Structure to design on (650 residues):
């Protein structure tokens, strides 16, 4: 398979993150390891965080292609997101800092919000609630997941079962109809 | 940056978002807000505010048309990047830093740096001064990166590529734009290397604006630059316009082409091509092979003086002539006062046209360059003439340059054919002498006009009160 320069740089970063923290990695380390020039790095990325963002998005996308199947339960899909982070936990933990914290958060929200949206739209009441409020509901529930994810990362990512996803599902499933009723215009 | 600066920056970004949604509706509203909060007296820039309000509120004013043209014809993200890098970083953040350092080090600190990434060019135009360098010299990616990194420490956020044809190094230029995404990059270019891929890269980095050299219409351009060049340049401009990328045009006026490249027809053509600004350059007789007969006569230069001022009032394109607009910038801006030039060999010239130096960026820091002998001679000598229509230490005041070069022992940085300062200055003496009386007359007129304007404004204010 032909590998693009961007992918090669992303793989190199992930490889370096297996061994040390992001604050100990320089652009020079990455290009030396990858066998390209510094200018090649900057042709594609503004800085290491820009590369990190791209690498994370790219690998989540690949993972989604492989692990998500048609008709998969929404709860299972959310579990898969946590499983992705668990599989990459060394890289995720070594990459964790103030900037990447926001990137992890964004990645989680991007994954979860369409699922929440779909779940919400399956309720008949959804038709009577205006769009602004529906996207607010989506945001609240997706942010909760992002919060649980970040909390778990801060604790050093012990076993996934540590995250109380089943309890979250009970809350979401049980309250979404109630909220929609209350928000009916 | 301190906290108050951050708040100002945040406020400006918000204001920009507000304008962008509906410029025609929201600009006057924002201006009301600015007027309400501006401090009284001189500190509140009353003259500038009044001028700006006039532009905003008068739909027939050329600058009004230009502003709305730029707002509607430019990619929103690119416009936002230009606003942040050029207006906020380049001026509001950069300027106080530059002032502070000017004070601290007692030398010039520039507002922009011009640099040649390469001396190579894909065209071979008759009489091009860049061609004098031959085509084997390059500033490496790391050298340019270091210049910009050091520049930002000094508060410089505006970098202008010249050459050679900078676009010969296009992938490095994109890499530098991406790395320094808080800076604004401009680039003098013949435009023949701008293709769709490059335009897409420009859209992705957002902080790169070409200033395309055009000699006038087809026959003039092809005559000097080679058959088919004009067509390629026009194609490049139409590509940029279709991608909503901003660009400008640069023209060199000589005794031969001054009337055609300042004609109404040509202005309208540039506007139609989509250019938002045009920089006019007075021909400079530099280099051993220069053609002094191309120097405009006093009548021709005076014609340009009036023509460009008229265009600023009547044409929706921002026109500037560095030789005749000295009054707006206090005369000569070279020697690091507002800008200086680094050639593809690393030599630091006080000006793109003045190739004498004692400093090379490969041997010393940017700050040391600015404190090197010829740069200090510029610093101490500026302005070179109280009449800003005679700003240049070479063209209008040739003895000044000769004296500075002798005093500082600066050497010619022209690697192809070093020219002595005597030889260069001799070519300007007659021109300088001939121009003096016109310059004095024009200068006095413009001073009187300004006085009259101030009087009438003061009168208006009194009536208003």
């Amino acid at each position: 398979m032909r590998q693009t320069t961007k992918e090669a740089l992303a793989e190199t970063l992930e490889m370096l993150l297996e061994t040390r923290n992001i604050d100990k990695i320089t652009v020079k380390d990455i290009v030396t390891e990858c066998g390209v020039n510094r200018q090649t790095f900057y042709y594609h990325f503004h800085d290491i965080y820009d590369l990190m963002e791209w690498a994370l998005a790219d690998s989540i996308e690949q993972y989604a292609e492989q692990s998500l199947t048609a008709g998969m339960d929404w709860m299972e899909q959310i579990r898969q997101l946590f499983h992705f982070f668990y599989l990459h936990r060394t890289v995720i933990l070594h990459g964790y800092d103030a900037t990447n914290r926001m990137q992890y958060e964004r990645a989680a929200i991007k994954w979860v919000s369409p699922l929440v949206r779909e779940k919400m739209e399956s309720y008949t009441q959804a038709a009577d609630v205006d769009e602004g409020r529906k996207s607010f509901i989506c945001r609240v529930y997706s942010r909760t997941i992002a919060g649980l994810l970040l909390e778990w990362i801060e604790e050093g990512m012990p076993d996934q079962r540590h995250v109380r996803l089943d309890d979250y599902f009970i809350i979401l499933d049980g309250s979404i109809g109630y909220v929609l009723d209350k928000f009916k215009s | 940056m301190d906290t108050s600066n951050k708040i100002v920056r945040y406020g400006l970004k918000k204001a920009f978002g507000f304008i962008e949604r509906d410029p025609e509706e929201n600009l006057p509203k924002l201006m009301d807000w600015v007027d309400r909060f501006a401090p009284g007296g001189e500190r509140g820039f009353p003259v500038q505010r009044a001028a700006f309000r006039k532009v905003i509120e008068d739909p027939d004013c050329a600058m009004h048309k230009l502003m709305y043209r730029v707002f509607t014809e430019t990619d929103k993200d690119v416009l936002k990047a230009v606003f942040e890098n050029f207006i906020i970083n380049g001026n509001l953040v950069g300027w106080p830093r530059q002032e502070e350092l000017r004070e601290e080090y007692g030398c010039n600190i520039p507002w922009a740096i011009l640099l040649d990434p390469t001396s190579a060019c894909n065209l071979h135009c008759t009489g091009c001064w860049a061609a004098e360098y031959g085509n084997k010299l390059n500033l490496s990616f790391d050298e340019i990166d270091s210049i910009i990194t050091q520049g930002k420490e000094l508060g410089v956020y505006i970098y202008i590529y010249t050459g050679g044809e900078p676009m010969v190094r296009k992938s490095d230029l994109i890499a530098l734009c991406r790395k320094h995404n808080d800076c604004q990059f401009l680039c003098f270019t013949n435009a023949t290397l701008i293709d769709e891929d490059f335009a897409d890269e420009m859209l992705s980095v957002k902080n790169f604006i070409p200033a395309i050299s055009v000699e006038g219409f087809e026959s003039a351009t092809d005559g000097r630059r080679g058959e088919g060049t004009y067509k390629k340049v026009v194609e490049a401009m139409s590509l940029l316009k279709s991608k909503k990328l901003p660009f400008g045009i640069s023209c060199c006026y000589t005794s031969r082409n001054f009337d055609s490249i300042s004609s109404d027809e040509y202005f309208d053509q540039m506007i139609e091509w989509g250019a938002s600004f045009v920089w006019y350059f007075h021909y400079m007789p530099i280099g051993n092979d220069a053609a002094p007969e191309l120097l405009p006569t006093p009548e021709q230069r005076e014609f340009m003086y009036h023509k460009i001022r008229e265009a600023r009032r009547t044409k929706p394109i921002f026109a500037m002539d560095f030789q005749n607009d000295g009054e707006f910038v206090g005369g000569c801006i070279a020697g690091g006062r507002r800008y200086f030039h680094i050639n593809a060999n690393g030599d630091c010239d006080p000006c793109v046209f003045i190739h004498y130096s004692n400093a090379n960026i490969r041997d010393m820091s940017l700050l040391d360059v600015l404190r090197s002998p010829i740069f200090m001679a510029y610093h101490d000598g500026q302005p070179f003439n109280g009449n800003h229509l005679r700003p240049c230490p070479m063209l209008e005041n040739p003895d000044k340059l000769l004296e500075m070069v002798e005093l500082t022992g600066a050497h010619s940085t022209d690697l192809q054919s070093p020219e002595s300062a005597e030889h260069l200055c001799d070519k300007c003496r007659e021109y300088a002498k001939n121009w003096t009386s016109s310059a004095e007359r024009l200068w006095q007129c413009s001073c009187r006009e300004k006085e009259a304007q101030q009087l009438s404004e003061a009168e208006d204010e009194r009536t208003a009160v």
The mean pLDDT of chain B is 89.
